[in-house]
Amino acid sequence: MSPLMFKVIFVAAAAFMLLILFRRRRTSRKHPLYERVSIPPATSIPQEGAGNLSQAHVMLLTKMLCPVSENDLFEVDVYKQQWRSVLRESPAKAIRRLLEAGLIERAPMDLETAVANRLPASAVKIMLEERGLPTSGSKKQLVQRLVAATPDDVRWMAQGVVALKCTEQGRKIAENYFEANRRQKEILEEALLSSLRAHDFRRAAELLAKHDKEQVFSPRASLAASSLGGLQIQRQRVDVGAERDYLNRIFQARPRILAALSEEQLEHVRVAAGMMHLLTVTHAPKRWWPPDFKTGLLMDNAAAARMIGVYLGHLSEVQRYRETGVVKAVSVAVVSNSCEKCRELAGKRYALSRVPELPYERCTSDMGCRCCLLAELSKEYQI
Q1: Does residue 94 belong to any structural domain of this protein?
Q2: How far is the first Cα of the chain from the last one, in angstroms, to the nearest whole number?
Q3: Rounded to whole angstroms, how far apart are CA atoms 274 and 247?
Q4: Which domain holds residue 61?
């Protein structure tokens, strides 16, 4: 082959590869997930030296769809600091801004809302029982029953309490935000499912990272000490490489407790386990599974998917113990309603070279194995 012909072939191949990359990039940009959720025009509120109302302000607005006192709006200081960070102003100033815009208003707290905000359902049941009233039903029904029967006994809970609640305009904005957010999550879920089923783990991690970056509050936030004292919430960015690697581990995992599954069944369980990990949830809705899918195991589908996460966590824990040298042995701990087979392991001491695999393969619980390891420190690390 002549040098000229070689150059022509090389240039043609390079052009072809660039064309493929360009088309793939254009296709990814057209994915619905990359279309930013548009907040209704009604949220366009002038701010001092800023643009329109932020997504954080709209989320704050949704907390007042039901009447709530300003003291109860931010339950503990750590969350108040988190709101300050995302609002980029104090929560009190943000509330004033929403009041001035006519999106929320102050009004006396109604009695039912005051009781529901102040008392947990268990306390309401106790008060009903003391008065010889039925204790069945939802919390809303319990509160209505208590207030209707003995309003004077609980009236003090609403005295002097001023509620913040959405105006009609504010309610429309908040409900539109909820709907847009719901649709965004649906699109994300569909895209993640498609990526996992195609074993495109990097794509799944990238989708998650982009979605997470656009959220007001990240589900991957963690508590850390503040330089000003106390605790503050630190946002953790999604590490695309780490997420891709972990998904690879999920799809290679084969815990013994799932040994009875066929390769096809195990694939569906792995997809659900991947979704549970990415979305940080412990349930696995039916839409993630093929119609009428059953594992044939004693546990349900979601429990089977959880077993993969338990298995990977167990492997990482044992490996960490072996590498650090801090732990010389472990024992197995069980929960109060563990099955008999798991109870046989309880309290037994194991060297790190002989640790039984968790989840325990002989577990008969319909919730799946919930055993865990208790570490025994080497003498030099004991206090």
Answers
A1: yes
A2: 76
A3: 6
A4: 41-177
